[in-house]
Amino acid sequence: MTPLPAWSRRRSGADVSGIDYHALLPEIILAATVLVTLVVDLTTRKKYLVAVTAMVGLFAAIVPVLTLTFCDSIEFCTATGADRVLFGGSYVVDGYALVFKGVFIFAAFIVLLLSVGYLEMDRYYEGEYYFLLIASALGAVVMASSRDFVTMIVALELVSGPAFLLAGWRKGDPRSNEAALKFFITGVIALALLLFGVSLLYGLTGTQQFDQLAIASVDVADMPLFTLGMIFVLLGFGFKVSAVPFHFWTPDTYQGAPAPVTAWLSVGSKAAGFVGLLSVCYLAFPELSNIWGPVLWLVALLSMTVGNIVAIKQTNVMRLLGYSSIAQAGFMLAPFGAAAASGADNLNQAFSATVTYLVIYAVMNLGAFAVAIIIGSRVGSYELEDWAGLNQWAPGLAIALAVFFFSLAGIPPLAGWFAKFAMFQATIGVGNWWGYSIAIAAALNAVIALVYYSKVLKVAFMDPVPEGVDIEALEAAEIPGPIGFALGLTAFGVILLGVLPGLAANLGDFSAQVVAGIGG
Predict the structure, then answer these.
(1) Which of 5, 204, 222, 349 has the greatest count of CB atoms below 10 A from its CB?
(2) How far apart are CA 282 and CA 463, in angstroms?
(3) What are phi and psi of 84, to 5 degrees?
(4) Adjacent-strand bridge partners of 148
(5) Is 11 helix (H, G, I), strand (E, B) or coil?
(6) What is the mean pLDDT of residues 52-74?
(7) Measuring CA to CA, which residue among 488, 258, 468 is closest to residue 376?
(8) Is 386 among the domain residues?
């Protein structure tokens, strides 16, 4: 039997009988922020104060994430060099959790900036919006440290519940109503599958904690009912990452939901789904990769292929980004599935590659939505034909659009190239046909992706401005300050991570310590 993950063995410096408030501080701050935003909304007519409160809360929450990360060099840290294990192992704060907590808080901050400018453009209820967004971010942060199914499912639904409401925020828009309804129905079905799978696993093993499940599952791994339970769990998380064949809600929801909400779904909700997949597969079922590995390999292949092929035909930018998100999920799953399916001796590289891709994807996809929101709001449409001639009246926005779309396509020296490089390095490094075949498929799909990303840029740079468009009015329009700041921040991140890719690689390696010893 292979050794258990390092986090389940290393408990020095962690007091499981008490509460480590430093380890829980990000969650405590976000929970307090949720309550304070609600109070501020109820007590003032100046709704921008609710957004300011939410922003201050996110800034405050990132501070303990940093102090926990660099605990070795801070005097008041009493558990230097050790993972913080709470509640008998059900909640763990390690490198893996801290990386994703940082990603979730960053994503929520960018989406908050996008939302402030977006909500001001029309009459929307603002206070409840920020309350729900921070609540969803809190669920994602909790999920990063969850090490049992009960905590993880509660956190997952805290991510999803507010998102259901946010997707239908434009109550007078039938398309937004449709988006929320489809998202809700498919989300409930996915939760039902997940809970049914967990109930089967608990009934067979008597535990729902990942480290104990990794031991108990060995004795029942040959039982068909156990395999069925594991498949149901994978199906539930497959919905969250919008992987094929669980992707049907994605394009309609992306098109119908308010654009900042779509940005959160494409990064925050998707990353939360990947946290679930990574945690369950690597930590709860480390010795059963022969079962879940081929499943994820097939899902990765279908996701990148179907997502890219269907994206070519899209004429609405939000739907195109929806199918792009599906394809990107396939690229992220590729090293994850290939290494496990092949029975590789060391899964660290695959784990690190997936996390590295996720970190870079978060930055460049949020940037893509930022520039799309600015352009779409200015021309009053997300239809591609209405973006024709963008370079003639907003050359800066056209360049920003090119930066993010070329990054999504993996063109150097933008950040996306290293995401693709890490993915190819991990899949080829598997060293057998599982890795080689999906690497070839990924290479072909990367070319297909370049086609539809370039199609958008061709319309923006080379097509003439549609007749009847008031170019002077478009040129005179100003970019809302918060959205402009979000655009600049993500553009800087895409360029920085492209020039210094080691920053993202270090985060991937730091998080991969959680799987030390698996498969070895």
Answers:
(1) 5
(2) 48
(3) -100, 110
(4) 209
(5) coil
(6) 85
(7) 258
(8) yes
Residue 337 has pLDDT above 90, yes or no: no
- Does the N-terminal peptide bond of residue 294 adopt cis geometry, omega within 30 degrees of 0? no
- Express each pLDDT in 301-313 by its tens digit: 999 999 999 999 9
Are 26 and 64 contacting, i.e. CB atoms less than 8 angstroms apart? yes
Q: Which of 140-154, 281-295, 335-349, 411-425 has the lowest mean pLDDT?
A: 335-349
Exposed/middle/buried for residue 470 (C-beta within 10 Å: 0-12, 13-18, 19+): exposed
β-pairing, 91-93 with 84-86? antiparallel
Total number of domains in the chain: 1
The answer as to whether 118 is a domain residue is no
Q: What is the mean pLDDT of the chain?
A: 86
Count helices and strands (H / E) in the chain.
22, 2
Return all residues near 498 (Cβ < 8 A) that are at least 6 apart. Answer: 407, 412, 413, 414, 415, 416, 417, 418
**Is the model more confident about 178 or about 444?**
444
Q: How far is CA 438 from CA 113, 175, 297, 409, in A?
A: 38, 36, 8, 18
- Residue span of the structural domain in which 512 resides: 288-520
Cβ atoms within 10 A of the Cβ of 399, count?
Answer: 15
The whole-number pLDDT of residue 261 equals 92
Residue reference for tokens 């930055």: 363
Cα angle: 285, vertex 286, 287; to 5 degrees: 95
As given in the structure block, the two tokens for residue 243 are 């992987």
pLDDT band per the 50, 70, 90 thresholds, residue 79? low
Categorize the per-residue pLDDT at 214 as very low, low, confident or very high, splitting at 50, 70 and 90. confident
Tokens for 157, please give them: 């639904």
Q: Residue 70 domain-assigned?
A: no
pLDDT of residue 287: 80
Residue 432 backbone class (left: φ over 0; alpha: ψ -120 to 50; beta: rest): beta
Q: Pull the structure tokens for residue 369.
A: 């939505």
The DSSP element (H or E) to which 507 belongs, if any, is helix 502-512
Whether residue 194 is contained in a domain is answered as: no
Q: How far is CA 277 from CA 234, 281, 329, 370, 493, in A?
A: 7, 6, 12, 28, 26
